[in-house]
Design brief:
Oligomer: single chain
Shape: flat
Helix content: 25-40%
Distance between the termini: 41 Å
Mean pLDDT: 84
Bound molecules: zinc ion
Low-confidence stretches: none
Number of helices: 1
Order of helices and strands: H
Structural class: mainly alpha
Length: about 50
């Protein structure tokens, strides 16, 4: 039996939201993807010091 993941608002099925801008990753433009991954790295760098 499979356990269903908790449904979050506005998300459809397997759509994964970006933790940086809280928008579905599939809705990102290539520029936005770069921007978000850069911020994500900065965030992780700051955390893993
Ligand atoms: Zn994003």
């Amino acid at each position: 039996m499979m356990t269903e993941p908790p449904k979050s608002e506005g998300s459809e099925g397997s759509e994964e939201n970006c933790p940086i801008c809280n928008k579905p990753k599939s809705k990102h433009t290539p520029e936005k993807v770069l921007e978000c991954s850069k911020k994500m790295r900065e965030f992780q760098d700051a955390k893993e010091e």
